[in-house]
């Protein structure tokens, strides 16, 4: 695999063999923390440095990948870089229209960050299946279990299936004083009702693994004394069970149609931005991780990842594994996010030992 996707590497004695890669992302959602993703990028660099400093000679090359735009907040789709690497032709086409909230296109943003990419050559980013022998990502848990149970390392067995939906309602709007209640078709109330419907459909599954969030509701014109004539809602729903998650998406769609009808508003958009399958972690990598945690005498537990990661898409290119470390009260996607230097060091040591094992396979 040539180095265009790898910014840092340790060449193997047999560089023709599929490399072992590791990495994560450094972008973050607004008003959030400093550890989500970054631990997996700096940790990858340090793990390879540790192996270099120790004079370790891998058979398979080791590569670090820094994925762009893992968070959906800038260009409207999650894991943009790893999706492209994993071969999403739909994204190759869709990304051409994408602009951020400063009206900067993806290509302009990529060029200003030094990437040499254009509409013509974007497809060349796509990796052949099997381009890597394995891919491994170190990440904070973004949940409370490891800290609560006093466990040092999480060995991830599977990553939950995420879906995101954009909905728009339109009504007549009008004067907040002069339009009497029976005359109204309030797009804002339609959005509010849909948000509660999302919660209802998620809870209805009866499974703790089903989650749903309405993180964005925008009302137009956004004046206290004007009835919303437009509402824009963004919904995130996930489950480790894909079928159950798809059932939630279907019910949300049906509720959008029913609410629009009942309230006399127009459902002007119902767009599923992504509806991804879950991913299973590879047994060879899980076993290598268990060997590493035992060698380091670290407590560990098998667990699923409720957050999605670039690994969810790298699993489409090569066998994948993830290492979790505890984070303070499980906080993430908020400024209080924190991981201790000891926990990060544990994660990097497990990563280095596992990369070394896999590179000798
Ligand atoms: O939302 C997620 O699961 C990830 O942290 N971006
Ligand atoms: Mn995140
Ligand atoms: Mn992340
Ligand atoms: Mn075990």
From TrEMBL:
Keywords: Hydrolase. It comes from the Eukaryota. Its EC number is 3.5.1.116. This is Amidase carbamoylase-type protein. It comes from Dioscorea alata (Purple yam).
